[in-house]
Amino acid sequence: MNTEVKPYTVVDMCENLDDETIGIIEKRLIGKHPNTYTLTKGLAEQIVMCKESGLLIAIVRPSIVCAAYQEPFLGWIDNTNGFTFRTNKFIHAIIVVTLHFLPAFIVDLILRVQGCKPMYPKKL
Protein backbone atom coordinates (compact mmCIF):
# COMPACT_ATOMS: atom_id res chain seq x y z
CA MET A 1 0.00 0.00 0.00
CA ASN A 2 1.64 3.22 -1.11
CA THR A 3 1.41 6.40 0.89
CA GLU A 4 1.65 9.99 -0.27
CA VAL A 5 4.52 10.63 2.14
CA LYS A 6 7.82 8.75 2.29
CA PRO A 7 8.30 6.48 5.33
CA TYR A 8 11.62 7.93 6.43
CA THR A 9 10.21 11.45 6.20
CA VAL A 10 7.53 10.48 8.73
CA VAL A 11 10.10 8.77 10.98
CA ASP A 12 12.26 11.91 10.88
CA MET A 13 9.25 14.12 11.65
CA CYS A 14 8.20 11.95 14.61
CA GLU A 15 11.71 12.04 16.03
CA ASN A 16 12.20 15.79 15.63
CA LEU A 17 8.80 17.49 15.92
CA ASP A 18 6.74 17.96 19.07
CA ASP A 19 3.31 16.35 19.48
CA GLU A 20 1.46 19.62 18.93
CA THR A 21 3.11 20.22 15.56
CA ILE A 22 2.46 16.65 14.45
CA GLY A 23 -1.19 17.07 15.50
CA ILE A 24 -1.45 20.14 13.27
CA ILE A 25 -0.11 18.34 10.17
CA GLU A 26 -1.71 14.96 10.92
CA LYS A 27 -4.59 15.26 8.43
CA ARG A 28 -2.19 16.18 5.67
CA LEU A 29 0.05 13.22 6.50
CA ILE A 30 -2.87 10.78 6.54
CA GLY A 31 -3.90 11.88 3.05
CA LYS A 32 -6.38 9.43 1.51
CA HIS A 33 -6.00 6.87 4.29
CA PRO A 34 -9.06 6.44 6.53
CA ASN A 35 -6.95 6.57 9.73
CA THR A 36 -3.42 6.52 11.14
CA TYR A 37 -3.50 2.72 11.46
CA THR A 38 -3.73 2.18 7.69
CA LEU A 39 -1.17 4.91 7.09
CA THR A 40 1.40 3.30 9.40
CA LYS A 41 0.75 -0.13 7.88
CA GLY A 42 1.48 1.33 4.45
CA LEU A 43 4.62 3.06 5.70
CA ALA A 44 5.88 -0.16 7.31
CA GLU A 45 5.26 -2.12 4.10
CA GLN A 46 7.25 0.43 2.09
CA ILE A 47 10.19 0.14 4.51
CA VAL A 48 10.10 -3.66 4.26
CA MET A 49 10.05 -3.49 0.45
CA CYS A 50 13.05 -1.12 0.43
CA LYS A 51 15.07 -3.31 2.79
CA GLU A 52 14.14 -6.74 1.44
CA SER A 53 17.28 -7.21 -0.74
CA GLY A 54 16.15 -10.49 -2.26
CA LEU A 55 14.76 -12.07 0.90
CA LEU A 56 11.44 -13.84 0.72
CA ILE A 57 9.00 -11.68 2.67
CA ALA A 58 5.43 -12.26 3.76
CA ILE A 59 3.31 -9.56 5.36
CA VAL A 60 0.55 -10.90 7.60
CA ARG A 61 -2.10 -8.31 8.48
CA PRO A 62 -5.05 -9.82 10.34
CA SER A 63 -7.81 -7.29 10.80
CA ILE A 64 -8.69 -8.25 14.38
CA VAL A 65 -7.13 -10.92 16.58
CA CYS A 66 -9.58 -12.21 19.16
CA ALA A 67 -9.52 -14.83 21.93
CA ALA A 68 -7.94 -18.22 21.30
CA TYR A 69 -10.08 -21.18 20.26
CA GLN A 70 -8.13 -23.91 22.08
CA GLU A 71 -4.49 -22.97 22.69
CA PRO A 72 -3.26 -22.34 25.31
CA PHE A 73 -6.86 -22.84 26.46
CA LEU A 74 -10.38 -21.99 25.24
CA GLY A 75 -11.11 -18.26 25.28
CA TRP A 76 -7.58 -17.19 26.28
CA ILE A 77 -6.81 -13.49 25.93
CA ASP A 78 -3.77 -11.61 27.16
CA ASN A 79 -5.65 -8.57 28.47
CA THR A 80 -9.09 -7.28 29.38
CA ASN A 81 -9.14 -4.42 26.89
CA GLY A 82 -10.79 -4.10 23.53
CA PHE A 83 -13.25 -6.12 21.55
CA THR A 84 -12.69 -9.61 22.94
CA PHE A 85 -13.30 -8.93 26.60
CA ARG A 86 -16.38 -6.75 26.08
CA THR A 87 -18.15 -9.04 23.66
CA ASN A 88 -17.03 -12.51 24.75
CA LYS A 89 -20.52 -13.62 25.86
CA PHE A 90 -22.12 -12.15 22.75
CA ILE A 91 -19.77 -13.95 20.35
CA HIS A 92 -20.19 -17.29 22.13
CA ALA A 93 -23.95 -16.95 21.69
CA ILE A 94 -23.67 -16.62 17.90
CA ILE A 95 -23.35 -19.76 15.81
CA VAL A 96 -21.84 -18.11 12.73
CA VAL A 97 -19.69 -14.99 12.86
CA THR A 98 -19.02 -13.43 9.47
CA LEU A 99 -16.72 -10.65 10.62
CA HIS A 100 -12.98 -10.76 9.99
CA PHE A 101 -11.94 -12.04 13.41
CA LEU A 102 -9.07 -14.49 13.73
CA PRO A 103 -8.42 -16.44 16.93
CA ALA A 104 -4.90 -15.89 18.25
CA PHE A 105 -3.71 -19.42 17.49
CA ILE A 106 -4.73 -19.05 13.82
CA VAL A 107 -2.56 -15.94 13.50
CA ASP A 108 0.29 -17.87 15.14
CA LEU A 109 -0.12 -20.72 12.64
CA ILE A 110 -0.24 -18.29 9.71
CA LEU A 111 3.01 -16.69 10.87
CA ARG A 112 4.67 -20.12 11.18
CA VAL A 113 3.53 -21.20 7.72
CA GLN A 114 4.80 -17.94 6.24
CA GLY A 115 8.30 -19.00 7.31
CA CYS A 116 8.19 -22.03 5.02
CA LYS A 117 9.74 -21.94 1.56
CA PRO A 118 7.13 -20.86 -1.00
CA MET A 119 6.55 -22.97 -4.09
CA TYR A 120 6.59 -19.98 -6.42
CA PRO A 121 8.70 -17.13 -5.02
CA LYS A 122 7.83 -13.90 -6.76
CA LYS A 123 9.53 -10.53 -6.61
CA LEU A 124 7.12 -7.68 -5.89
Automatic annotation (TrEMBL):
One of its GO terms (cellular component) is peroxisome. This is Fatty acyl-CoA reductase. Catalyzes the reduction of fatty acyl-CoA to fatty alcohols. Belongs to the fatty acyl-CoA reductase family. InterPro entries: FAR (IPR026055), FAR_NAD-bd (IPR013120), NAD(P)-bd_dom_sf (IPR036291). One of its GO terms (molecular function) is alcohol-forming long-chain fatty acyl-CoA reductase activity. The chain crosses the membrane at residues 90-111. It is an enzyme of class 1 (oxidoreductase). Gene3D superfamilies: NAD(P)-binding Rossmann-like Domain. It catalyses: a long-chain fatty acyl-CoA + 2 NADPH + 2 H(+) = a long-chain primary fatty alcohol + 2 NADP(+) + CoA. It comes from Temnothorax longispinosus. Its EC number is 1.2.1.84. GO terms for biological process: long-chain fatty-acyl-CoA metabolic process. Residues 18-85 form the Thioester reductase (TE) domain. Keywords: Lipid biosynthesis, Lipid metabolism, Membrane, NADP, Oxidoreductase, Transmembrane, Transmembrane helix. Pfam families: NAD_binding_4. The lineage of its organism: Eukaryota, Metazoa, Ecdysozoa, Arthropoda, Hexapoda.
